[in-house]
Amino acid sequence: MSENRPSEGQPISGPDVAHNARVWNHWLGGKDNYPIDRKVGDHVTSMFPSIGEVARADREFLGRAVRFLAGEARMDQFLDIGTGLPTADNTHEVAQRVNPAARIVYVDNDPLVLAHARALLTSTPEGATDYIHADAHHPDAIVADAKATLDFDRPVAVMLLGSLNFILDTDTAVDIVGRLMAAVPSGSHLVITHPTTELGGEGNVEAMRFWNENATPPITARSLAEFTRFFAGLDLLDPGIVSCARWRAAPVDGELPPIVPQFGAVARKP
Ligand SMILES: C[S@@+](CC[C@H](N)C(=O)[O-])C[C@H]1O[C@@H](n2cnc3c(N)ncnc32)[C@H](O)[C@@H]1O
């Protein structure tokens, strides 16, 4: 485990202020959260009732994307930035079920995620996991630390699920993704989920305003045009940019899952 400049733009995390990693854990039905997280999270749910479905659809997308990457795409290295608190089917568990030799580096800047990181370090003996306490604003430092576990001369799957929405300036967020993808070779992949006020997410505008006034870190939604910028120079894999609930989802009783206002996509570096 290592730490590098974890706290830029990050107010102190504690039981007095609702914090995203813990509220996300509450929406996923977890227990690693404080009363203030449940209070703010439930208020957001009252304003934007589908937020719990968004969180679950995002995790199900993670499962499908990582199974595809570790299997068909033969990726055995993963850099998961904005990991969140450990929950069921963390990235290493999904990947190592497909390929026990998979190596995963987790990155988050929330001190509580650091405190629970031991649950992310339960690698198979053939593979490896590591945790870096760091801020996504410092992609070069993250890559430097991740080199202790990952071989950047071989393809890496870079994952930013529900985390770029905390990089408020779009040019900065695009630059961070560009630096990460510049550090990995051809054959690497990029996986992103991101909230939007499109795809029926108009109700999210007020809920996000409430969040930004009452919780941390501040969040932003992005349009399809903005989200598309993250994939410049990469080959988007089928079905392209869709609601994460629909990305390679199997129909149930002939019906695809309902759309949630969260984009999801996977792309390959040519
Ligand atoms: C919505 S949760 C998503 C968790 C997980 N990736 C998922 O999809 O279920 C976002 C996570 O990103 C982390 N995060 C937010 N801003 C970050 C930053 N600047 N650097 C690193 N992690 C960040 C939060 O602490 C939180 O754990």
Task: Explain what the structure shows.
With 270 residues, the chain is an alpha/beta fold. It is 34% helix and 18% strand. The protein has helices spanning 20-27, 35-47, 51-70, 91-98, 111-115, 139-146, 170-182, 204-214, 224-229, and strands spanning 2-4, 18-19, 77-81, 103-108, 128-134, 157-161, 189-195, 215-216, 235-236, 242-243, 262-268. The strands form 2 sheets. Strands 1, 3, 4, 5, 6, 7, 9, 10 and 11 form a 9-stranded mixed β-sheet that branches. A two-stranded parallel sheet has the order 2-8. It is globular. The two termini are 31 Å apart. The protein binds S-adenosylmethionine. S-adenosylmethionine binds at residues 20-21, 24, 58-59, 62, 82-84, 107-110, 113, 135-137, 161-163, 166, 217.
Describe the structure in brief.
The protein contains 9 helices and 11 strands. It is of the alpha/beta class and 270 residues long. The site of S-adenosylmethionine has 22 residues, from helix 1, helix 3 and strand 4.
**How many H/I helices?**
9
What are the low-pLDDT stretches, counting only 5+ consecutive residues below 50?
A: 5-12
For the terminal residues, how far apart are their CA atoms? Answer: 31 Å
C-alpha Rg, in Å?
17 Å
The proportion of residues in beta strands is 15-25%
User: Considering DSSP H and I runs of 4 or more, what fraction of the residues is helical?
Assistant: 25-40%
Beta-strand segment tally: 11
Overall geometry = globular
The main pleated sheet reads as:
9 strands, mixed
Bound molecules: S-adenosylmethionine
Structural class of the secondary elements?
alpha/beta
Mean pLDDT: 93
Please write the string of helix (H) and strand (E) elements: EEHHHEHEHEHEHEHEHEEE
